[in-house]
Amino acid sequence: MNSPFATPVKPDWEAFVDCIMRRGTPRRVHHIELFLDAEVQELICQRYGLTDDLSPSDPAFAYERQIRIQRFLGYDFVRCGLDDWSMPLNRIAIEDTAEAKREQGRHFQDEHRGPITNWAEFESYPWPDPDACGTRTLDWYSANLPDDMCIIASGGFAHFAEYLTWLMGYETCCYALYDQRDLVAAIAQRLIDLYQRVLQRLLAFDRVKVVWGSDDMGFKTSTLLSPKDTREFILPGHKIMASMSHDAGRPYLLHACGNLETIMGDLIDDVKIDAKHSFEDTIETVIEAKRKYGDKIALLGGIDVDFMCRSNEGAIRRRVRETLDACLAGGGYLLGTGNSVANYIPVDHYLAMVDEGRNYSG
User: Of 29, 33, 52, 347, which sits most exposed with the smallest number of CB within 10 A?
Assistant: First the structure.
């Protein structure tokens, strides 16, 4: 198997968790991504022959493939949630213009109207039953994941702000905060009830060593809902997720896009997140966040997605070194993009970022 990486890396989930928990400067750089788009994964598999000896008809093909991708790139984990989890939404599809395009197009939430805009729609909505969801993927990874890797519980839960605004439609939700506040509260509570049950099931798996909630709460200049309403309807759910994770001995990571300056104190001191993910240069660089919050929480990723798209390989490598110089000492920093490895990021740019992190020696 050929490789674009100069430095070999062996997964070490215990050192990975130690780095998140700021237990000293790690012996090497640890990497993290919320996810790699399917198109990126397929390009990497094809280019480097990662699955040439696997049969797509094998029931375990998808699991084996994911492990090979993660280990090839140097990650210490796989991400996994419950199977069969579904919450129908109103989405709009447009053509994907990325080079590694999705044939089915790109999908966006309908910001005007979601599936729940009144009490009748709330009562008739097909709410999922966490106890009926499968654990096939968790079971397989628990039995077959190499001992040097762990499972990050992530996907299908802790989307409190997202699903509140997606289920109602962002515009409808904003009006409802004045006209139907009781309906907003009911949806928020239903999400808490569902996600508590989801997390209870995930935490029952010993190979789950980290919990990663994902919940975009803001945009370029502020939170999507007012800080007051965010504290009332959104943060209590994350506080429960963090408390459940901590009681089970797992750190609670939070992916949340947007400018969260007004609620960072709440997230750190009340919700008690262990790490923050998602950074945009137009809001705050990860180096700036490290200076402000690095003595309290870990900071994850931060190599800006727009920068990853527009810059050349040399600039990406320089930025990786500068970021690691500023953030790695003492632990509490893991290298990655500012959001995720989208299919419009040139794959060679992404691999250059990973390679530079693997080469870094401080």
Answer: 52
Distances (CA, A) of 286 to 15, 273, 277, 334, 354: 21, 16, 9, 11, 17
Q: Which CATH number do you get for residue 109?
A: 3.20.20.210
Q: In this structure, is residue 353 part of a structural domain?
A: yes
Whether the CB-CB separation of 154 and 75 falls below 8 Å is answered with: no
Q: Report yes or no on whether pTM surpasses 0.85.
A: yes
Instruction: Classify residue 7: in a domain, yes or no.
Output: no
User: 92: how many CB neighbours lie within 10 A of its CB?
Assistant: 12
Q: Is residue 5 part of a domain?
A: no
Q: Is the pLDDT of residue 1 over 80?
A: no
Q: CA-CA distance, 178 to 102, in Å (whole number)? A: 39
DSSP letters for 150-192: EEEE-SSS--HHHHHHHHH-HHHHHHHHHH-HHHHHHHHHHHH
Contacts of residue 250, defined as CB under 8 A and 6 or more positions apart, other chains included, come to 153, 203, 208, 209, 210, 211
Q: Up-side HSE of residue 112: CA atoms within 13 Å toward CB?
A: 1
Contact 335, 357 (CB under 8 A): yes
Euclidean distance between CA atoms 148 and 13, whole angstroms = 6
The token pair at 200 is 């209870």
Rounded CA-CA distance 69/50 in Å is 7
Contact present, 170 and 111 (Cβ < 8 Å): yes
> What are the tens digits of pLDDT across the range 137-153?
999 999 999 999 999 99
Instruction: Render the burial of 112-126: b for 16+ CB within 10 Å, e for the rest.
Output: eebbbbeeeebeebe
pLDDT in tens, 42-55: 999 999 999 999 99
The parent domain of residue 142 ranges over 13-359
Token pair recorded at residue 250: 């797992």
H/E run at residue 245: helix 235-247
Q: Which of 66, 79, 69, 62 is nearest to 16 (CA)?
A: 79
Look at the chain and count its residues.
362
Domain total of the chain: 1
pLDDT for 108-134, tens place per residue?
888 999 999 999 999 999 999 999 999
Q: Which structure tokens are listed for 74?
A: 């140097």
46: Cα separation from own chain's centroid: 25
Q: Indicate whether 1 belongs to any domain.
A: no
Token pair 């599936």 in the structure block, residue? 115
